Amino acid sequence: MKKTMSKFAVSATVGFATLTGGGLAFAQSTASPGTAPPCEFCASPFGDPRESPFADREYITDVAPYRVTRTYGKQSFTSLEGATIKLRAAPGVTAEWLQQYMNQHLAHVSSSPPPNMDWCPLTVQGATAEVTSTGDGFAVTIKSKDRDNAQEILRRAQGLLGR
């Protein structure tokens, strides 16, 4: 038996295909370029980049200070640079997908900071986020080169456990 494979070129402007009344109709995605539309079909708590990834507190398992040790000659200096927030795994979420979600959220809050998100560590001026897989979940390291901002990131991250 011989298998054949067809290749299709799909334009980037084509949105989601839906079956309607026996025919195939195409609907344009309402998301702006570079942003993901809110996820209506998956069980992921990370569906809308306008919402903080830390809004669902039940996914947060731990918060720890993020410290960096630098060595200059024979002397070592350790400084606080932010916080690491551990999240438990969520259905359909990978480290790469969560990193993209974090990047989109950071872009959203930097362009128009929401007034009611002063609890979110990602809304601190100059914050960056890096997501890594931990096997049973994810570690999100939020950091800033500014010492005062790093302390504010840690304060807000620790506040997530108490909310």
Q: If you had to describe this structure to a student in words, what would you say it looks like?
A:
By secondary structure, the chain is of the alpha+beta class. It contains 2 helices and 6 strands. The strands form 2 sheets. The protein has a 4-stranded antiparallel β-sheet. It starts with 15 loop residues before the first strand and ends with a helix.
Largest sheet descriptor: 4 strands, antiparallel
Residue runs with pLDDT of under 50 for 5 or more positions: 1-43
Number of helices: 2
Mean pLDDT: 76
Total beta strand runs: 6
Rough outline? globular
Overall helicity? 10-25%
Main sheet: which strands, in order across?
3-4-6-5
Order of helices and strands: EEEEHEEH
Calculate Rg over CA atoms.
20 Å
Report how far apart the termini are: 61 Å
Structural class: alpha+beta
Q: What percent strand? A: 25-35%
Helices and strands in order:
Blueprint: E1 16-20, E2 23-27, E3 60-72, E4 75-88, H1 95-111, E5 128-133, E6 137-143, H2 147-162
Antiparallel strand pairs: 1-2, 3-4, 4-6, 5-6
